[in-house]
Design goal:
mainly beta; disordered N terminus; single chain; about 80 residues; 4 strands
């Protein structure tokens, strides 16, 4: 039996929010994903910088476009975590 580990799967930090209209917003945010024991390489964390366009429809915000970039060391390919 594998031990259970309590982890927070996703942590987001808003960097910038730019309203275009009342119903359209552009947002930049950090997202940290924590993978658990079921992941092929085991428990680890990955940071991505995300740019998204959201629109409001019937009081709900929907993601219409999203682009993410994982930060890595260009010499080694190793993922880089941002400072907390």
């Amino acid at each position: 039996m594998k031990p259970s580990i309590a982890i927070r799967p996703i942590q987001n930090e808003i960097l910038e929010l730019s309203p275009i209209t009342e119903d359209v917003v552009i947002i930049h945010f950090w997202s940290r994903l924590t993978a658990g024991l079921a992941h092929p390489v085991g428990v680890h964390q990955v940071d991505t910088l995300i740019l998204a366009v959201l629109t409001k429809q019937q009081e709900s915000w929907l993601i219409r476009a999203l682009e993410n970039v994982t930060l890595t060391n260009p010499r080694t390919g190793q993922a880089i975590l941002r400072d907390d």
